[in-house]
Automatic annotation (TrEMBL), chain A:
<keyword id="KW-0813">Transport</keyword>
<keyword id="KW-0547">Nucleotide-binding</keyword>
<dbReference type="GO" id="GO:0005524">
    <property type="term" value="F:ATP binding"/>
</dbReference>
<dbReference type="InterPro" id="IPR003439">
    <property type="entry name" value="ABC_transporter-like_ATP-bd"/>
</dbReference>
<dbReference type="Pfam" id="PF00005">
    <property type="entry name" value="ABC_tran"/>
</dbReference>
<protein>
    <submittedName>
        <fullName>ABC transporter ATP-binding protein</fullName>
    </submittedName>
</protein>
<dbReference type="GO" id="GO:0016887">
    <property type="term" value="F:ATP hydrolysis activity"/>
</dbReference>
<dbReference type="InterPro" id="IPR027417">
    <property type="entry name" value="P-loop_NTPase"/>
</dbReference>
<comment type="similarity">
    <text>Belongs to the ABC transporter superfamily.</text>
</comment>
TrEMBL record, chain B:
<dbReference type="Pfam" id="PF12679">
    <property type="entry name" value="ABC2_membrane_2"/>
</dbReference>
<feature type="transmembrane region" description="Helical">
    <location>
        <begin position="124"/>
        <end position="149"/>
    </location>
</feature>
<keyword id="KW-0812">Transmembrane</keyword>
<keyword id="KW-1133">Transmembrane helix</keyword>
<dbReference type="GO" id="GO:0140359">
    <property type="term" value="F:ABC-type transporter activity"/>
</dbReference>
<keyword id="KW-0472">Membrane</keyword>
<feature type="transmembrane region" description="Helical">
    <location>
        <begin position="73"/>
        <end position="96"/>
    </location>
</feature>
<dbReference type="GO" id="GO:0005886">
    <property type="term" value="C:plasma membrane"/>
</dbReference>
<protein>
    <submittedName>
        <fullName>ABC transporter</fullName>
    </submittedName>
</protein>
Length: 289, 273
C-alpha cells in the first residue's frame, strides 16, 4: 500500500530509500518499473513512464529480487537473454560479469549459486545496459561483511560516475554509510525527504548521562536548576537540554560524588525508529520496543 | 527521476518497431535453448513420435491381412502422435510457466515493459519452434511408420497423404501454442501440466469416443484435429466418427488456440507481475 508518495531523486548521489518492513518500499520500486500498477497516479523517470522506453535496460537498471533467476540457466545465459531483449551486444555480458567478479562461474548454472553470488548476478543484470539510473531493493540483505563492503563501494562508485542511484533498505545505519540523500516512508506515506546530515541533526537529540551513588539528591539538585532528567534502567540519569560541564559544576557545588558524566547522541537507528515508530505495521507485542 | 501521484492513469502508447519485436524473439529463443529441461522436450517429441510410429507400423503390418479393405495406413502414421504430442505440450507449458516458477517474469517484463510485445514475441517464438519440430517429427514419423507397414504402407504422393501430414504438423504446432496460452492464464507450470496432461492423455485413450460423453468431448482441443489426421475411422463411423469434417475440426482447434491466447493476454495485462 502506497499512498500519495511524491519525491524526486537526483543524479550523482546515492539516495537511500528507507522504511520499516512492509512500508511499501518494494511496491514503490515495482511500480517504478511498471510491474505493479498504481490504482491512481503514475511514476515518471526522466519525465516519461518506464513502459514507454523502447529499450528500458539502457535507461534504468534494477535489482528488485536477485533470486528471480532460472536455476537451470547459467549466469552468462541469463544475462545473454536479457541483453537480447534490449539489443545490447553480447560482449557487454562478459564485461558486467567481470565487473561483479563472476567471470569464473559464468558457465555455471544459477541454482548452485550462493546468496552473495546471486546478488552479484542481479547487480550485473542491472548494469547490463549501462543505465544512468539504478534501482536496488535491499542489496545488502543476507550478505557477508565482505559482500556488504563491496556493495557499499560499488554504489558510491556508480554515483560518482554521475548516475542516479536509488537504494532501499530497512537499516538506517547501513544507509547512512552510503547515501547522501534520504527518502523515508512508513505505511506507504512520505515521512522525510532530506539529506543524511540534516536528518541526523534534526533527529538525534543529545543528552548527558550521569552516574552517581546518590541519584535522589542529584535529581533534586538538577530539578532545582530547572534541568529535565530521566532515570534509565541501570540507575543512571539522562539530562536533557544541558551540557556536561554545567552538570559537573552543579555536582561540585553541591558536594555530590559523580562516577560518570558523558555527552550521548541518540543513534541514527534510534532516530529512525522514533520517526517511523507510529508507522510500523507489525510490531512485537508489549508497547514501544 | 520522479515518482508523482497525480490522478492520471499510467497508460501511454508507443509504437513497436520491427527491431524491438525481433529483439524479443531472439531473447525468447535464447531462453529456449539455454534451459535443458525445456529444450530436451523437443528431441523427446521427435524420438517418442517416430519410435511409436515405427512400433505401430510393425504391429499393423502383422495384423492387417484379411481387413485390407478398411485399413488406413495414415492411422498407423499418426496414432503415435497422441502420445508423442505430450512432450511438446510440456514444452509450451514450460516456456511460459518457468517464468512464473523462477520469477524471471519480472525481469522479462522490466526488460520488455510492453506486455503485448513480450507475450506476442514469446508466443511467436514458441509457435515457430513448435512448427519446426512438428514438421520434422511428422514427416519422419510418416516415413518410418510407412516403411514399417511394408507392403501395406503408402507414400507422401498417395491421395490424401499430404493433407493429413499437413494437418498433423498444424495440430502439433497449435496444441503447443494452446498450452502456452493456458500456462499464461494459470501462471504456473505444475498447474498447467496438471490440467492439460490428464485431459490429453485420456483424450488419446478414447475420451472422444465414449458414446455418452462424445457429444461434448469430441470438441476438446486435442480431439478436433483427429478427423484430418485419419484417427477417427472412415467418415460416418458410428463409434469413432465425428460430427464435423476434417477442416472444420481444424478450424475449431484454431478457435481454441485463439481463446487460450486471448485469455492469457488478458491475465498478463491485468495482473501485477
Amino acid at each position: 500500500m502506497v499512498d500519495d508518495l511524491s519525491f524526486t531523486v537526483r543524479p550523482g548521489h546515492v539516495t537511500g530509500f528507507l522504511g520499516p518492513n512492509g512500508a511499501g518500499k518494494s511496491t514503490t520500486m515495482r511500480m517504478m518499473l511498471g510491474l505493479d500498477r498504481p490504482t491512481a497516479g503514475r511514476v515518471l523517470i526522466d519525465g516519461e513512464p518506464y513502459g514507454l522506453f523502447p529499450e528500458p535496460l539502457r535507461r534504468v537498471g534494477a535489482m528488485l529480487d536477485a533470486s528471480a533467476v532460472h536455476g537451470g540457466r547459467s549466469a552468462h545465459n541469463h544475462l545473454l537473454w536479457l541483453a537480447r531483449t534490449n539489443r545490447i551486444p553480447g560482449a557487454r555480458v562478459r564485461e558486467v560479469l567481470a565487473a561483479v567478479g563472476l567471470e569464473d562461474v559464468a558457465g555455471k548454472r544459477a541454482k548452485g549459486f550462493s546468496l552473495g553470488m546471486t546478488q552479484r548476478l542481479g547487480i550485473a543484470a542491472a548494469l547490463l545496459g549501462d543505465p544512468p539510473v539504478l534501482l536496488f531493493d535491499e542489496p545488502v540483505n543476507g550478505l557477508d561483511p565482505e559482500g556488504v563492503l563491496w556493495i557499499r563501494n560499488l554504489l558510491k562508485g556508480l554515483a560518482a560516475e554521475g548516475r542516479t542511484v536509488f537504494v532501499s533498505s530497512h537499516l538506517m545505519s547501513e544507509t547512512a554509510l552510503t547515501a547522501e540523500h534520504l527518502v523515508v516512508i512508513g505505511r506507504g506515506r512520505l515521512l522525510a525527504d532530506t539529506t543524511v546530515s540534516r536528518f541526523v541533526e534534526a533527529n538525534s537529540r543529545s543528552y548527558v548521562r550521569i552516574r552517581t551513588p546518590e541519584p535522589e539528591r542529584m535529581r533534586d539538585v538538577l530539578a532545582a536548576a530547572g534541568i529535565q532528567v530521566e532515570e534509565t534502567r541501570d540507575g543512571a540519569l539522562e539530562a536533557y537540554g544541558t551540557e556536561a560541564a554545567r552538570l559537573g559544576e552543579l555536582a561540585a557545588v553541591n558536594g555530590l560524588t559523580v562516577h560518570e558524566v558523558s555527552t550521548q547522541r541518540a543513534s541514527l537507528e534510534e532516530a529512525f525508529m522514533r520517526l517511523t515508530g507510529d508507522a510500523v505495521e507489525y510490531r512485537a507485542g508489549g508497547g514501544r520496543r | 527521476m520522479s515518482a508523482t501521484s497525480t490522478r492520471v492513469t499510467a497508460e501511454g502508447r508507443a509504437t513497436v518497431s520491427a527491431a524491438s519485436a525481433w529483439a524479443v524473439v531472439t531473447a525468447e529463443w535464447t531462453k529456449i535453448r539455454t534451459v535443458r529441461s525445456t529444450f530436451w522436450t523437443l528431441p523427446l517429441t521427435f524420438v517418442l513420435s517416430v519410435g511409436l510410429g515405427h512400433l505401430i507400423g510393425l504391429s499393423f503390418a502383422d495384423g492387417v491381412s484379411g481387413r485390407e479393405e478398411t485399413f488406413d495406413p495414415l492411422f498407423a502414421a499418426f496414432y503415435g502422435l497422441t502420445l508423442g504430442q505430450l512432450p511438446l505440450v510440456a514444452f509450451g507449458v514450460l516456456l511460459v510457466g518457468a517464468e512464473y516458477t523462477s520469477g524471471t517474469i519480472r525481469a522479462s517484463l522490466a526488460a520488455v515493459p510492453r506486455r503485448g510485445l513480450f507475450y506476442g514475441g514469446k508466443a511467436f517464438t514458441g509457435l515457430l519452434t513448435a512448427l519446426a519440430v512438428s514438421v520434422v517429427t511428422v514427416v519422419a514419423t510418416f516415413l518410418v511408420s510407412q516403411a514399417a507397414l511394408g507392403r501395406y504402407g503408402t507414400s507422401l504422393g498417395a491421395e490424401g497423404a499430404l493433407p493429413a501430414v499437413v494437418a498433423a504438423c498444424l495440430y502439433l504446432t497449435l496444441i503447443c501454442v494452446f498450452a502456452m496460452g493456458v500456462a499464461t492464464m494459470l501462471r504456473s507450470s505444475t498447474l498447467s501440466l496438471g490440467v492439460l496432461l490428464p485431459v490429453f492423455f485420456l483424450g488419446s485413450q478414447g475420451l472422444g469416443n465414449v458414446p455418452g460423453l462424445k457429444v461434448v468431448t469430441q470438441y476438446l482441443p486435442d480431439q478436433v484435429a483427429a478427423v484430418a489426421m485419419h484417427l477417427t475411422g472412415p467418415a460416418g463411423d458410428p463409434r469413432f466418427g465425428r460430427d464435423y469434417g476434417a477442416w472444420t475440426g481444424m478450424g475449431i482447434l484454431v478457435l481454441w488456440v485463439v481463446a487460450a491466447l486471448v485469455g492469457g493476454y488478458l491475465v498478463l495485462r491485468r495482473r501485477d507481475a
